[in-house]
Amino acid sequence: TSINTTVQTIISDMKSQQIKAMIGDTEGGASANSYGIHFDEDQYVLFRGSTYSSTATTNFVVNLTDTIKFDAGSRPEIIFEKVSGEIYQFSIGPDKIILKNITNGNIKTITINQDGVIKDVN
Fold it and tell me: What pLDDT, on the 0 to 100 scale, is given for residue 74?
């Protein structure tokens, strides 16, 4: 159950970042910007801008539980374009986000296309 809950939270956060990019959310900044998600093995970071900076004060870190990890070979950094919401950068890895429950071996894969649409979750 925890891996399914984690997947749903990630999808919700991805959609939220995409919507912010599409509507021109400034989050109190001077102008609209791109929004993205940076993935590490045990967390992901919601960020504002066309590049990820680990020191940005506007970053929002979401830690995974001790039993859920992102697969080391599939940790993309996804950045949604302003206005269109399309993905213009998979800077690391493929168009899949793979999570694994290290306790029971359960694996979930989120597949996204270039338009930022979740194509599949299995």
Answer: 59
